[in-house]
What does this fold into?
Amino acid sequence: MFCGKCGTKNEDNVEFCTNCGARLNKATSKRATAVSVTSQNDKNRKVGMIAVAVAAVVVIILGVVLFGGRSYKATVEKFVDAQFDANAEAIFDLMPEKLIDYALEQDGYDSDDLDDLIDDANETLQDQLDSLDSYLGEGWKISYEILDTEDIKGDDLDDIKDAYEDADVKVSAAKDVEIEITVKADETESSNSLDVSLIKVGRSWYLDVMSMGNLF
It folds into this structure.
């Protein structure tokens, strides 16, 4: 039985606790047992809570590793936003880094020239926005929706992979996305469709600049 005073376990036929000397009886033994069981339950509950927390962290990490990267929808959204924000740097971020390095080298530039190229592209985009301002007035807004998507397969996909091979960009998939861009002003609303070509490299989707040509 357990001592009701200190909780020490004693033999059933012992009258006094071998640890603290307190008298033992069935009532105190039951109370001590209850305290011991409650304490063990508390420990088990804490261990269980820790295990659940660890498992949740593992699930989050696995989710990032297995399902991370940028989706094709996010790539399209960032591209449209960058166009109408005159943000060429954001558009460059939607291209594989190896492709940018390769293109700079092919055209006789180096990484130090990239900022100047981005500035030039920003000016081009801003000129386009200024033209819209002149035509529509201030306060116009744009929206877009994805109308259709097509996965590129077979020989067409092989051709795209070959096009990026010299840049050491490993394309695993490709997709054409048709979007409709709507421009709204006070008294004007017009819509135009645009095809956005995408490639998948690693776990992320990028702009297929080889197919789309001049983005600015």
Notes: The two ends are 85 Å apart (CA to CA). The CA atoms of residues 16 and 23 lie 4 Å apart.
